[in-house]
UniProtKB/TrEMBL annotation:
This protein's UniProt keywords: Ribonucleoprotein, Ribosomal protein
Region annotation (Disordered) ranges: 101-129
Annotated PROSITE patterns: S1 (PS50126)
Ranges of residues in domain S1 motif: 6-74
Positions with biased composition (Basic and acidic residues): 101-111
Keyword Ribosomal protein: yes
Organism: Deinococcus aetherius
The family this protein is said to belong to: Belongs to the bacterial ribosomal protein bS1 family.
Protein name, as recorded: RNA-binding protein S1
């Protein structure tokens, strides 16, 4: 079995993670189909597309610097005429922006500003030596 870049081969999904699916081939070698290589559309939940134990056809994209196989299912799927693009967010209403500023100011005062610049509460202002 040739696992050279461009080869199309069938393998069995041995493990599914949040970032991709591991596929094992007849020769015992395993490769990864990264979540971005599952489908042309955005994949929110990989479990909606592949399942452990399922046989899948994949295209070998190549090997990474460690020699691990990079695989794709998406490369074998017909590309849709138009890929849905995320809708651009336009300028928000002044009321929304005022509420957001108020929320952010309140969060900083409670110590949940997340990144400095805000007031420090009494628990963080004194250091023990």
């Amino acid at each position: 079995m040739q696992l050279d870049p461009g080869a199309v081969v069938e393998g069995r999904v041995t493990r599914v993670t949040d970032f991709g699916a591991f596929v094992q081939f007849e020769n015992g070698e395993t490769g990864l189909v990264h979540i971005s290589q599952i489908a042309h559309s955005f994949v929110r939940n990989i479990h909606d597309h592949v399942r452990e134990g399922e046989n899948v056809e994949v295209k070998v994209l190549g090997r990474d610097e460690r020699g691990r196989l990079d695989l794709s299912i998406k490369e074998l799927l017909e590309e849709p005429e138009e890929i849905p693009r995320p809708r651009a967010i336009g300028r928000q209403s002044p009321q929304f922006e005022a509420k957001l500023r108020s929320f952010m100011r309140d969060a900083k005062e409670r110590g949940g500003g997340g990144g400095g610049g805000g007031k420090k509460g009494p628990a963080t202002s004194k250091r023990k030596k």
